[in-house]
Amino acid sequence: MDFRQEFELLLRARYPLIYIPTVEEERVESAIADCAKRQGNRGVYTWDFVDGYQGNPNDTGFGRRNPLQALEFVEKIPATAPAIFILRDFHRFLDDISISRKLRNLMRRLKSQPKNIVVVSSQLAIPDDLSESFTVVEFALPSATDISEEIQRLLSGMGQRLSSEVLDEMVRASQGLSLERIRRVLARAIATHGELTLEDVDLILEEKR
């Protein structure tokens, strides 16, 4: 079962609190948005400590620098409205007694509502008193297919083509890196000599080391 299948299953089963440890914030949020569309076009609300909620003009900035308000916002959305609330870096606040208590209170209420709170964090850090409340979902590093599509997207933008042998070498060398790091090292290669070549495989391996 891949990430999207597992995540959609948790949405259908109404698991209220989900925790996704990953450094690939942009990629996981894109995957969550895809799942939300397939699950009846659920609303997706994204919060971070600096900017508060983003995306919906009526709610822009709500909960800025206030993680408790970020949770209170969940109750502002009608109980019958399917929604996913993405909380970035929220692991930093889980030790706060007011946050912990609010999450446990919400968990009981959300079991009967089509709403899910999703913590997206670069590390797995769940306090003991919340360990039974959260369901942890792994988000794998990009597959060979994901990497190949990204490299070909870059090549298309430059009007360049690579032989299948060179492309396969690049894909193999890139496995084990996040998509963002792959983009950075390929951008470095392009900035160096204006194109991607077989020699750039060594640059990718250097980045991995």
Output the structural class: alpha/beta
Report mean pLDDT, rounded to a whole number.
95
- Spans where pLDDT lies below 50 across 5 or more residues: none
Question: Cα-atom Rg, whole angstroms?
Answer: 20 Å
Please summarize the sheet with the most strands. Answer: 6 strands, mixed
Strand portion, in percent?
Answer: 5-15%
Could you say which overall geometry the principal axes of the C-alpha atoms support?
elongated
Overall number of strands: 6
- Arrangement of strands in the largest sheet: 3-2-4-5-1-6
Structural description of this entry:
With 209 residues, the protein is α/β, with parallel strands linked by helices. Helix content is 47%, strand content 14%. It has eight helices and six strands. The chain has helices at residues 3-12, 25-38, 67-76, 97-110, 144-158, 164-174, 179-193, 200-208, and strands at residues 17-21, 43-48, 52-54, 83-88, 115-121, 135-136. The protein has a six-stranded mixed beta sheet, with helices on both faces. Strand 2 and strand 3 form a beta hairpin. The protein starts with a helix and ends with a helix.
